[in-house]
Amino acid sequence: MLSLSKDKIKILLLEGISENVVNTLKSAGYTSITYYESAISEDELIKIIPSYHFIGIRSRTHLNDKVLKVASKLIAIGCFCIGTNQVDLIKSSNMGIPIFNAPFSNTRSVAELVLAEAILLLRQVPSKNTAAHSNVWLKSANNCFEARNKVLGIIGYGHIGTQLGVIAENIGFKVIFFDLLTKLPLGNARQVSSLNDLLSQSDVVSLHVPETNQTHHMITKKELDLMKKGSVIINAARGNLINIEHLKTSLDENHILGAAIDVFPIEPENNQEKFQSVLCGQNNVILTPHIGGSTQEAQIKIADEVAQKLIKYSDNGSTITAVNFPEVNLPHQKNCSRVIHVHQNIPGILNQINAVCAAHNINILAQYLQTKDDLGYVVFDLDITDAKTIYQEIQSIPGTLKTRILH
Fold it and tell me: What is the percent of the chain with per-residue pLDDT over 90, rounded to a whole number?
């Protein structure tokens, strides 16, 4: 792909991403921006995505093989959220398209929501709130508890899990956690050796793991039965971690005192679509519409972080923190032509690139190479102001996935 002026680079933003993104992109010279307040259908996306060079999404838009294979101009993907499971990472890599996200920007927002829900559930606020709205007065201390000295069990001790543990300790929770890796505890938190140990010891269980084949329905009736009678469970991570039907059964049996669910196996595409769940109508369940990271502070941080990453990649090829790409931090080029080459990680490609430059008597001023798994990424600055003469030869090297020239 040859260089385009910034005003001709087309950017598609979906799902009501913070408008700070638009301001940031325009300040950097990118003005051809299409902005949607919500997600769009897959069919509509397939129709329009072939025209765009960059796309920004949140969690509702799925960039699968069917969508990506028609995105012939796509240079990079921005996920304005924590996760990237809504994007086909393998297909994106094979097309030479890096994916950028904001894995830590809404950490505090999620941790605060979980802590608030834990306290509300321990105090039986959801059922008492429902009763009060129905003109019923349920003043009682039955099954209502302080957070102090209760055990909070955190499944997944990553950035959100660790921050939740720290702030929960400050109000008196005893924190234990389970993680597949041995982690350094913060504060007085304690790692337990198995999921079963965590479930059997905890008064409150909170999930903070990604969705994988191993974590899909990691909480079923079997695991719920291991939890203390009268305990509560919270999921603000991924929708398929808990078997929702099994959770409803445990709630109906009064084994689980309450639950808070922020993520669901199937979620509405937009605010106009009807939400449905077997948990609707349960007065001891807090249901929230995937708002764990939906605070003004988090959205501003996410908008700035991902937008800056896209700008930096577009401007000079830097791929630091890319999810699926070799990471290279690059200086700005001056009075030279920069060539970006994405290729299969096979022997000899760098030699072939150098041979093309030598055949045209072009001096290489600087060269940056990094690999990741099956992907290779090389960036080289040439002592010329226009590299169009060698573009086709570089692009024709066997194993090439994408070539881009920056002037």
Answer: 87
